[in-house]
Amino acid sequence: FDEHFSYAKLCQALRYLLRDGPDCLLVGTNRDHRLPLEGGTAIPGTGCLVKAVETAAQREAFIVGKPNRYMFDCVVSEFNIDPARTIMVGDRLDTDILMGNSCGLTTLLTLTGVTTLDEVKGHQESDCPSRHSLVPDYYVDSIADLLPALGD
């Protein structure tokens, strides 16, 4: 994420990628289109910046963040994590919940982000298998709803 992203920075990125060719790794953190702010507003997310560089370079970035399982595999290699005893909590279906489901984790959606319950229901009722991978196991209105359970 770079809130000072500019045309000059896009040109510099393209120069690096062209200079070193296919050996120059193009890595992105995520493809989030928007980042929600309080009051229902949003700002462009990192995915917009990644897409700009991909378009200029005419190739796709390797995404290391959600929903790619790369990040999860790195954590698993460092820590003794049992997916059956792990929960993925997030506010986005297309990143947080998709990664959790693809990694065999229990998933919990918080409705404080860009996702609505109607969107979840639409995926749940769909006949499309790929849409079912976006359905969380559980949901809460806010992460704060979990605080009482953490005290136990």
From TrEMBL:
GO terms for cellular component: cytosol; plasma membrane. GO terms for molecular function: sn-glycerol 3-phosphatase activity. InterPro entries: HAD-like_sf, HAD_sf. It is found in: Cell membrane; Cytoplasm, Cytosol. PANTHER family: 4-NITROPHENYLPHOSPHATASE-RELATED (PTHR19288), GLYCEROL-3-PHOSPHATE PHOSPHATASE (PTHR19288:SF92). It comes from the Eukaryota. The keyword Cytoplasm applies. This is PGP phosphatase. Gene3D superfamilies: HAD superfamily/HAD-like. Coiled coil: none annotated. The keyword Transferase does not apply. It is a peripheral membrane protein. Its main location: membrane. Keywords: Cell membrane, Cytoplasm, Membrane.
